Amino acid sequence: MAATGYIAIMAVGMFTTGHVFNITYGDPNMVRVLVFFEVAMSLFAIFMARRIFGRWDCGYGLIDWRGALWMLPNFALAAALFYAAFSTGNPQLSGFVLLIVATMVLVGFSEELVFRGILLQGALRDVSLGKAILISSVGFSLLHSVNTLAGVPIDSMFEQLGLTFIFGLAMACYALRANSLVPVMIFHMLWDAVQFLGGVFGSDFGPLINIGIVLNAVVALVLWVVDLRKRRFDAA
């Protein structure tokens, strides 16, 4: 219910962006519209988390710093992306840049809370670890299907579904390893923000984005195998 409601709000936001304001997905100006929907989605996510789990963090506890070490390559990648954004582009501080950052903070917070928080932890109550990770990843992937309402071509949308499914798998594994949503929220914020800022600055990321995709696919696969084997061993 929480994920469905969240996707519905996003769909309205994308429709409004593309059909009311005629702003195509990928145009940085879309944040001028989406920021209002992101505020609504963040409040909705907090409300649903507290309603279902009684707390905003969906039952996660203190950060397991040893488990969080799996995310170090991602934060190194984020640092490289920001370096590329500022060194190869024309960075300028403006109200619009701050709006982009604020919007991406809301995106990272609310999407992780819904899909790696509410949906993943909720699924773990009823199904196995592997199935719960798949459910949360499929839900996160389907969220991006509504981007077609803001002008994303169908073929590009299917590509997004595949990439976001991989991203969802990785973030779910990281969250469970770290026993916290905080690291994945921070990385999600950085990942989205640097790409939008790079578009505004005219930056050249070279192969870094593709490296990030491959990195998370590999790490997600490793953690998937390790965690599933550990769960089977513990069950035995």
Short synopsis of the structure:
This protein has 236 residues and is mainly α. Helix content is 77%, strand content 0%.
Question: What keywords describe this structure?
Answer:
0% strand; 9 helices; globular; mainly alpha; 236 residues; single chain
Can you describe this structure?
This protein is mainly alpha-helical and 236 residues long. It has one domain. The protein is 77% helix and 0% strand. The chain has nine helices and no strands. The chain has helices at 2-20, 31-53, 65-68, 72-88, 95-124, 129-143, 154-178, 182-201, 208-235. The longest helix is centred in the middle third of the chain and has 30 residues, at 95-124. The two termini are 34 Å apart. The mean pLDDT is 93. Residues 95-194 form the CAAX prenyl protease 2/Lysostaphin resistance protein A-like domain. One of its GO terms (biological process) is proteolysis. InterPro entries: CAAX_protease (IPR052710), Rce1/LyrA-like_dom (IPR003675).
What is the element layout, followed by pairings?
Blueprint: H1 2-20, H2 31-53, H3 65-68, H4 72-88, H5 95-124, H6 129-143, H7 154-178, H8 182-201, H9 208-235
Q: What is the string of helix and strand elements?
A: HHHHHHHHH
Q: Look at the helices and sheets and give the structural class.
A: mainly alpha
Fraction of helical residues: over 70%
Number of domains: 1
GO biological process, one term: CAAX-box protein maturation
InterPro entries: CAAX_protease, Rce1/LyrA-like_dom
Domain CAAX prenyl protease 2/Lysostaphin resistance protein A-like: 95-194
Keywords: Hydrolase, Membrane, Metalloprotease, Protease, Transmembrane, Transmembrane helix
